[in-house]
Amino acid sequence: MKVTCVWQSEQHSAFTDLIYFEQLWWCAFREGSTHMSMDGAIRVMTSLDGNDWQTQTVLSWQGGDLRDPKFSIRPDGRLLLTAGMRWSTPLNGREKLYSLGFLSVADTQVWQEPVIDGMGKATWRWAPTWHDNKAYSVGYAGKDRQGCLYQSDDGLRWRIHVAPFFPQNTIFTNESSLAFDVNGTAYCLTRRDAIQGAAALLGTAQPPYLDWHWRKTNVALGGPKLLRLSNGEWIAAFRRINYRHGTARTLVQKLDVKTAKFKPWLTLPSGGDTSYAGMIEHEGSLLVSYYSSHEAHQARIFIADIPLRFKKRSRRFR
Predict the structure, then answer these.
(1) Are 178 and 127 in contact (CB under 8 A)?
(2) Measured on CA atoms in the order 116, 45, 247, 202, is the torsion positive or negative?
């Protein structure tokens, strides 16, 4: 495993995502004064080889805090970047939380003006996941912790697909990662924060994804990212906090989706304020973007290049 710091500054850099698109690596993350400051902007960086990274753009919103950027590729082949936004001061009675999307202009590296979703009701939606030409995303807001499963045709304008989404009697279920297997079964890995050490939930559903079955996992986690590898194995990246010692690490663990149990696999170099990973399997490697403050107590952006043994090893990032 090779881990490289790809960005560091005086700002707090966090909440990453990673994608390979049009022969380029793309990494997005938030920069702000602190973890929860109201001045967050999204820095988008690109690389031809994974070694040399250049800033492609910095996206900001006057009077708002942008955070949790997530990439996806639409069925029409265009790159979509979604994010959450917090107004520093609610305007005209609006709620403080919104979701918005930046769509790339076809055949360019230019971003269109963002589309803000849910102006009538605050919604904090997580990463869109595409399946059969439709996007799915889990959202939650305010005190409503049973959330909604949203569906969209374009990744910009959303409609409620399942509400409430999370099971009853679960408190403060929130950050969620969706993934689909080759047979169309949907999986949802969801964080819970009701009490310290509350185990995450794994939800499963068959098309049309209206009836979900939920089970407790054996791990409490934050910032989940779920991925099915090409050999059929399931893995997840997340933050794991040791409450006894007050430490945190970013882990990549294997998940048995039949039993909802995690098995230890990798601990990435990390500590302090850390996690919120992006993951891609690409030509024999697993690439993981994440942030961590284990170096000089400053939150920085890292990418881990992890060889996968079930495939012939290829040149890094090629």
Answers:
(1) yes
(2) positive
Q: For strands 158-162 and 173-180, give the pairing.
A: unpaired
SS3 content of the chain, % helix, strand, coil (to 5): 0, 55, 45
Give the model's confidence band at 119: pLDDT under 50 very low, under 70 low, under 90 confident, else very high.
Answer: very low
Ordered by where they begin, the domains of the chain are 2-307 (2.120.10.10)
Q: For 39-162, list the strands marked E by DSSP.
A: 41-47, 54-59, 64-73, 79-87, 97-103, 115-117, 124-125, 129-131, 134-141, 144-152, 158-162
DSSP assignment of 208-272, as one string?
A: T--S-EEEE-S---EEEEEEE-TTS-EEEEEEEEETTTTEEEEEEEEEETTTTEEEEEEE-S--S
Q: What are phi and psi of 7, to 5 degrees?
A: -160, 135
Residue 189 CA to residue 135 CA, distance in Å, equals: 17
Model pTM greater than 0.90? yes
Tens digit of each residue's pLDDT (9 = 90 or more) over 252-296: 999 999 999 999 999 999 999 999 999 999 999 999 999 999 998
Query: How far is the first Cα of the chain from the last one, in angstroms, to the nearest whole number?
Result: 16
